[in-house]
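Weekly structure sync, notes
Attendees: PL (lead), two postdocs, one rotation student
Agenda item 3: pending single-chain targets
PL asked that the sequence for the first pending target be pasted directly into the notes so everyone works from the same version. It is reproduced below exactly as submitted, 179 residues in total.
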Amino acid sequence: MRGETVVQPAPGHGTVRIHPTALIEDGVQVGEHSSVWDNVHIRRNAVLGHHTSVGEKSYIAYEVRIGNFVKINAFVYICAEVEIEDMCMISAGTTFTNDRFPRAFDPLTMELAGSEPTDETLATVVREGATIGAGAVIGPGLDIGRFAMVGMGSVVTADVPAYALAYGNPARVKGWVCV
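Predicted structure, written out during the meeting:
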């Protein structure tokens, strides 16, 4: 593959492929047989499992946890306090959010608000085997259930149960899917 950096982990472990334009901050762990493509930015202390692929121009915030056998397509934004379990598909253009009341200005300090997690940052979990369609927006503090499927372009504002097919704006359960 042209233009990529191949990182060789310890003997007995698989190859990790990191494109030379990817920005990987200190403390990031990338599991064996994983790939990080062009112009990806992974912030400090994020963890990616083995056999995971992160598509071009995606962003993964600090301390995000991503499991094994996860496919993250291009232009995906994964903010702090998001966990993605094993075998998930996060399609192109998906955006996660983590703040129910975002503001650019902090009225207490009279300064521009920081982007670090605070007491108001809400965690989201994408459970094992779930699929999120292209262009979906995932609200803060949600649970996307095991093997659930979120349709493309959906705006998810409530938890999605395991094996549910949810889509729309706001996303609603419209059916059920199997593994």
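Discussion points:
- Residues 5-104+122-176 form a domain with the UDP N-Acetylglucosamine Acyltransferase; domain 1 fold (CATH 2.160.10.10).
- The radius of gyration is 17 Å.
Action: rotation student to compare against the earlier draft before next sync.
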